[in-house]
Write a structure and sequence with these properties.
Elements (H helix, E strand, L loop, with lengths): L1 H10 L1 H21 L11 E8 L5 H16 L5 E9 L2 E8 L7 H16 L8 E2 L8 E9 L9 H16 L5 E7 L4 E7 L1 H6 L4 H10 L2 E10 L2 E9 L4 H5 L2 E5 L2 E4 H4 E7 L15 E7 L5 H16 L6 E8 H31 L2 H8 L1 H15 L6 H5 L3 H4 L1 H16 L1 H6 L3 H32 L1 H4 L3 H26 L1 H9 L8 H9 L2 H7 L5
Antiparallel strand pairs: 1-3, 1-4, 2-3, 5-13, 5-14, 6-13, 7-12, 8-9, 10-11
Helix pairs in contact: 1-18, 2-13, 3-4, 5-10, 11-12, 12-21, 13-20, 16-18, 18-20, 18-21
Length: 538
């Protein structure tokens, strides 16, 4: 079988060359499209159910929120682990599923159970929600909403937080590959009504009366429409509160025809929600930070490029003196990691090439053997793109070009020796006769050594079977490395059967002086044997 493939490649050189160019072309396309990353994403297939409750203590959160959610999720199919964290006002339940279930089926199952879990949580204690579809490596871009010199006192930390929530965050949403934009730091602006207990007691008003009055006077209503002649007039009642004065002038009740307003029993002002932390930067005090989360399995490099473009557009809409100051972006790490991989691959290629030329003593042989390295690399990237494997430090950094060209070295070396032994016959032949002799010698050399080369590469592939059988976190970490190395070996085997015999037939020439290989052959007494082997007719 192998001999037939080699013979077909030699007899149909144009087809073999076109096939090689096609595979290399697809490899270049895959190189431009393959997702780039720094390291493999080892996050398991998990979904988080998050519930916030502003008033409950840790013990109450565990008892009334976390436990009902865990109980409902424990019966879902494919669940391997459930863990939870209960803190003051916060419950986070993490449900880990089998990897084979994918990213969206578990969320659909949890969405069905969340309704039941919500019914078991007392009213007003909180509503459970699913976390974003992201992983531990989803934090791709972080920035600080900062002020330019001279504008430090113009914007308070609360105003910067408001700009972040209502201007920046909304414009950064909707980017392909971005699943969530989080806000950290600052004071969350609130309209605060501070009731004076003595005033409401003296006027015979309860807290519930004040609460109901504010709720009823901050609403909108629709009144259908009125048709008049050929026009329709839509009726709407706008009762939304727009300022502190509007809240102050809300009527709580009437006493003997005298209205009692909110301002009579309370102080209305701007306040902030309770917070559990703060963000500081550069020793300049508190700042407001934004964090962009990437969708699971998205191309981080492309998503970051889109984020940068959108940030440039948002910068133009910000108030005077305010700007977005990036503090962390994944593209820098990806760039440095990619350069490390490129340098290692390039240095490895050059070292292998020079060592092969030095040992064989033939520049043409070195080029033919070295040509297998970029071709195998493009073949590897093509299969990585097809099977959805990211290009990162683990998947590409472990490639060993010495092992990849091991089979090509023995084939080309043996072919050069046979060409050197039959140099007189080649020198005396011309035109088509010389091509026929070259094809015959190349076929004999490749066919005799190919079995040994394939056998050695198969042994290496078998070594990777235990690595390929890993699962879980270990599998996510090491399987890409084993797969990419196996793809490279398969590429070396593929091009060793197609491109290498053609290149050897077209470019190799007999040695005009003795080299290390021919000297070893003479000392071993193999020259007569090789001459007799060349009498075989293809």
């Amino acid at each position: 079988m192998l001999n037939r493939i080699i013979n077909f490649s030699i007899q149909n050189k144009l087809i073999a060359i076109l096939l090689t160019i096609s595979v290399a072309g697809f490899g270049v396309f895959a190189l431009l499209q393959i997702p780039l990353g720094a390291v493999p994403d080892i996050t398991n297939n998990q979904v988080q159910v998050i519930t916030t409750s502003t008033n409950l203590s840790t013990q109450d959160v565990e008892q009334f929120i976390t436990y009902p959610v865990e109980l409902e999720m424990s019966n879902l199919p494919g669940v391997t682990e459930i863990r939870s964290i209960s803190k003051f006002g916060l419950s986070v339940v993490t449900i880990v599923f089998e990897d084979k279930m994918g990213a969206y089926l578990p969320r659909q199952l949890i969405a069905e159970k969340i309704k039941t879990a919500s019914a078991n949580i007392p009213e007003g204690f909180g509503t459970p929600e699913m976390g974003p579809i992201t992983t531990g490596l989803g934090e791709i871009y972080q920035y600080i909403l900062d002020t330019k010199p001279g504008y430090e006192d113009k914007y308070s930390i609360m105003e910067l937080r408001t700009i972040q929530d209502w201007v920046v965050k909304r414009q950064l949403s909707g980017i392909p590959g971005v699943v969530e934009v989080n806000t950290w730091g600052g004071f969350l602006k609130q309209y605060e009504v501070a009731i004076n207990p003595e005033h409401i007691k003296g006027m015979g008003i309860s807290l519930l009366d004040v609460y109901d009055a504010i709720g009823k006077n901050n609403n909108v209503a629709g009144g259908a429409y009125i048709e008049k002649q050929n026009q329709s007039y839509f009726i709407r009642g706008d009762g939304l509160v727009e300022s502190l004065e509007d809240i102050e002038n809300i009527v709580v009740t009437n006493t003997n025809g005298i209205p009692i307003f909110i301002k009579d029993v309370a102080t209305v002002r701007f306040g902030s929600a309770s917070r559990f932390g703060a963000i500081t930067a550069n020793g300049e005090g508190e700042k407001v930070m934004g964090q962009i989360m990437m969708l699971k399995d998205a191309n981080s490099n492309k998503v970051i490029d889109e984020v940068k473009k959108r940030v440039e557009e948002v910068q133009k809409t910000l108030p005077e003196g305010v700007f977005i100051n990036p503090i962390l972006e994944r593209s820098e790490l990806i760039h440095k990691t990619s350069m490390t991989i490129f340098e290692n691959l390039m240095f490895g290629f050059l070292i292998v090439f020079f060592i092969v030329v030095l040992l064989l003593g033939n520049f043409r042989s070195g080029l033919v053997i070295a040509s297998l390295i970029p071709l195998s690399l493009l073949f590897t990237i093509s299969l990585m793109y097809i099977f959805g494997i990211d290009a990162n430090l683990m998947s590409l950094g472990a490639l060993d070009f010495g092992i990849i060209i091991d089979g090509a070295v023995i084939i080309v070396e043996f072919t050069v020796i046979r060409l050197t032994v039959n140099r007189k016959e080649l020198d005396s032949a011309k035109g088509d006769d010389r091509c026929t002799i070259m094809d015959r010698i190349t076929f004999n050399g490749a066919s005799k050594m190919m079995n040994s080369a394939i056998f050695g590469q198969l042994i290496i592939l078998i070594v990777f079977i235990p690595v390929l059988s890993l699962s879980g976190v270990e599998g996510k970490m090491f399987r890409p490395m084993a797969l990419s190395f196996s793809f490279a070996l398969l590429g070396a085997m593929f091009f060793g059967l197609t491109w290498l015999p053609v290149a050897a037939s077209l470019f190799l020439r007999p040695e005009k002086k003795k080299t290390i290989c021919t000297d070893a052959m003479d000392h071993a007494g193999l020259t007569p044997f090789l001459r007799s082997c060349n009498q075989v007719v293809v």
